[in-house]
Here is the input.
Amino acid sequence: MTIAYTWWKDATIYQIWPASYKDSNGDGIGDIKGIISTLDYLKDLGVDIIWLSPMYDSPQDDMGYDISDYESVYPKYGTLDDMQTLIDGLHSRGMRLVLDLVINHTSSEHKWFKESRSSKTNPKRDWYIWKAPKYDADGKRQPPNNWGSHFSGSAWEYDETTDEYYLRLFAPTQPDLNWENPKVRDALYDSALKFWFERGVDGFRIDTAGLYSKDQKFQDVPIIFPDKTYQPSDLYTQNGPRIHEFHKEMYSKVTSNYDVMTVGEVGHCSREAALKYVSAKEGEMNMIFLFNVVEVGSVRGDRFKYNGYNLIDFKKAVEDQGAFIEGTDAWSTVFIENHDQPRSVTRFGNGKHHNTSAKLLSLLQTTLTGTLFIYQGQEIAMTNLPRSWSIDEYKDINTVNYYKYFKEAYGKDKDFAEKEKALMDVIDLVARDHARSPVQWDSSAYGGFSTAEPWTRVNDNYKEINVASQIDDPNSVLNFWRKSLKVRKQFKDLLIYGSFKVLDYENEKVFTYLKYQSDPESSSPKAYVVLNFSTDSVKFDKLVDGKFELVHSNVSDVVEDTLTPYEERKHREYKQVMESQNSSYKLDERSARFYETLREKELREELDQKIEETNELDKFRRLKRAVNTSSAKVEKPVSSKVSISISRGVVNTKIGKLPKSKPFSTSTSTSTSTNSNSQNNSSNNSPGNSSPENKPQGSLSELRSKRQDTPLDLVSGYSSDDGEEGG
Ligand code: TEU
Ligand code: CA
Here is the structure.
């Protein structure tokens, strides 16, 4: 197989949040000159591209995602000239710059909106989305529908000037643009895109790339959260009816004319929906961000409704996030942090094993397929803010509003203190603020970020965790990242471009996978990655035959040519080895079975979605026929339940006999999940200040039985071909 290398596929992209990165002039706010002063540091780390979060002029209600002028720079960050210096400074180092493209909405301070709100007859009135109020039985004015804002409350804002509401899916000062109007689209192309391409910018990270096309009926959405007045609007706002038409237009009219990259923030998608955005032949975007991994454990639509997760959920999320590129012409992204997420070492690592678990996550990230994105401070394992900080230290509108609405709803309850503590535990784990504290450059005051008190408080642990203390230490997390990024490039056919297969799906402590080119059973080179996510020493169960060469590990004394069982290595809880050489591999039986049921489940989900979306029987029949065609390949496993074979056809050949019943070992005791949940077992005296959650998150046996049952149910659904809804 020949791989078509592409600069943006190969790239390691480093995200900079300008307010908190580096302050050059002592006003407590990061700036562009500060960024410029660190370009050699970034180059040396192995960064190819910088993604700069919004640096445009803005009132900063949502940290710059509320843009008042696409063509100028927020004065506290610098000037257009500074931006040019940054672009040139990057290009002269062989690096590139990607900006944030925020075109679902503008700030209410943008001149377009000021005109639009001025009167109902203003020519720009329909550049935004205006609707008349509704009145309830008591004659009280109400928003046009029940859509909720992503930042709590209604998604509609009343404007007295014309006695109408405008739509704003985020903050009150972030009115949504009306993409139905071609004049709006053309104005955006000129002002937000071409303006910067002409200055040498190399692409965009596209904010809320699935939200532009709203269902024009503006109906109420179904109630998902009965405890709330306003509901997630995704059904009528996300991946809407004209979204692909819009992306295709933007691509053909603008981005395809430049040698640039695009990565769209989409969030959640079925495989089919993802491909519409990123299949190369569709001509829309190069890649998208999906949230499977970063939102594992949270209820979709409300990150603060957090239920926890276990390693099996995590593996599934990692796989799903990249799986749509298997056998397609699409491309994916790898990331575990950004400005909307907490710090990964706190969320997925373990405070007691701060360095080792940060290295483990580095190894995970640098061995997954797709373009790799890392976030400022991730390379030194910056952590979440301390649990002891009160809500007053949190500045993000998402957190602040959530807390405000929560207090309004429950503030008078007798047990409010308890409820509040529970909420603060979750805020401490998943709020966006954790990513936004100043970068810790050294152990001097304010972590060397600024000489003045920063706009937001520096994490208490800056003396222990900072760049200066790590840069010359060969065992530091920072230098581990540098090496990992080098290894990623060295073995890029496998690590960046290769296929991915989990080998130990049901293992609750260890995450083992194979990276390979084309057929995993062929003799082409492979990489074998083993990550112990638990705090226990575990027996190393070699799931791959053949001889491997150890390439990289976070354990200094791993014996080079053998993988000794982990049980013999006490006190070395986090171990990973990554190997590459010719070999054959085996899936353990559970993984094999899991892969089968996974594909069944995917087909089932596609089917369900279609039924929901269209309610048209003929479409349903067509899909069913397609499913039944693949059932032609169906084999009868020993359990005698029908399973659909995997399209790549690699699994069934090697698994041997499946167990008669219960494909996964079952345990009736819920306590088995306690230890597996190492992420939630940390103590507070660690620099990581990890998750306060200590409870096992959902019974594992419950989880198992769910996973066993689903495919069996759906098999009966598929088996008849009479056009009846199969459930
Ligand atoms: O985020 C879009 C988005 O839907 C979220 O990830 C959002 O932060 C989350 O749902 C809140 O719980 C993008 C930007 O990444 C984010 O920083 C902006 O606030 C948002 O768009 C509005 O522009
Ligand atoms: Ca500054």
